[in-house]
Structures are given as structure tokens and as C-alpha cells.
């Protein structure tokens, strides 16, 4: 499996992980029994996939000399910015943290899907 295939496969892993994290957070807002350390561990893992995916993308560009569209790069970088914004608002939005991370994770999922549609490779 080449680096480009890994990047394409991991894009789906990132999208699914963030979709599940978003759904779980939104459900945890409503149902207290769904809250806990396991939820936050999963959210962390889902958000780390964004950074791994970006690193894989850089490797594809550098090693395989692939040219991608500016929009693909924009959506990839926006995912990293979105994770940073969620993290920066976590204290201010403490009362609504499940909604913050639920919506934010679904937004990251959408950025991943959009990046896949404008790949231009």
C-alpha cells in the first residue's frame, strides 16, 4: 500500500471517527449516562486523526510529488484550526461543552468530506 492509498483510507477513518464523536457528544448532552472519561478519550482520538491525516497529506505531496488543489489544502488546514478553536473555547463553554464538541466534531467531519470532494488528484 503506497502513501497515497494510506492517506485516502485514513481520510475515511478521520471522517467516521469525528462523526461518531460528534454524535456521542450530542447524545451525551441529553443523556448523562453517556458522559465520562471514555467519551473524552474518544473525542481526543478522533481529533488526533485530523493531525495524522494532515501529516499523511504532507508526506503524499513530498514523497509522491502530487499536486493538489488549493481548496483541498484549505479544508485540511481548516480541520486543524477547528480542533484548536474547540480546545480554546472549552473553558468558556463549560456549561455547553457537549454541544460544543458535538457540533465541532461534526463540522470537522464535514471538512474531511469536503476535502475529499475537491481533491483534484
Describe this structure in words.
- With 121 residues, the chain is mainly alpha-helical.
- The protein has one domain.
- Helices cover 80% and strands 0% of the residues.
- Helix 1 packs antiparallel against helix 2 (37-64), helix 1 (3-30) packs antiparallel against helix 4 (97-117) and helix 2 packs antiparallel against helix 3 (70-89).
- The model has no long low-confidence stretch (mean pLDDT 95).
pLDDT average, as an integer? 95
**How many helical elements?**
4
Portion of residues within helices: over 70%
Tell me the domain tally.
1
Kindly estimate the percentage of residues that lie in beta strands according to DSSP: under 5%
Unreliably modeled segments:
none
Oligomer: single chain
User: What is the N-to-C succession of helices and strands?
Assistant: HHHH
Specify the structural class: mainly alpha
Number of strands: 0
Q: What composes the largest sheet?
A: none
> What is the global morphology?
elongated
Distance between the terminal alpha carbons, to the nearest Å? 17 Å
Quick structural summary:
With 121 residues, the chain is an all-alpha fold.
Characteristics of this structure?
elongated, 4 helices
Describe the SSE topology:
Layout: H1 3-30, H2 37-64, H3 70-89, H4 97-117
Helix pairs in contact: 1-2, 1-4, 2-3, 3-4
Amino acid at each position: 500500500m503506497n502513501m497515497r492509498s494510506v492517506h485516502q483510507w485514513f481520510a475515511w477513518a478521520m471522517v467516521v471517527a469525528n462523526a461518531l464523536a460528534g454524535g456521542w457528544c450530542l447524545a451525551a448532552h441529553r443523556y448523562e449516562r453517556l458522559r465520562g472519561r471514555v467519551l473524552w478519550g474518544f473525542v481526543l482520538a478522533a481529533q488526533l486523526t485530523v493531525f495524522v491525516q494532515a501529516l499523511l497529506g504532507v508526506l503524499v505531496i513530498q514523497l509522491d510529488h502530487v499536486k493538489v488543489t488549493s481548496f483541498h489544502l484549505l479544508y485540511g488546514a481548516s480541520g486543524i484550526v477547528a480542533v484548536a478553536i474547540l480546545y480554546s473555547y472549552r473553558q468558556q463553554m463549560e456549561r455547553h461543552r457537549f454541544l460544543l464538541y458535538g457540533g465541532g466534531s461534526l463540522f470537522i467531519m464535514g471538512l474531511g468530506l469536503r476535502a475529499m470532494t475537491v481533491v483534484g488528484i
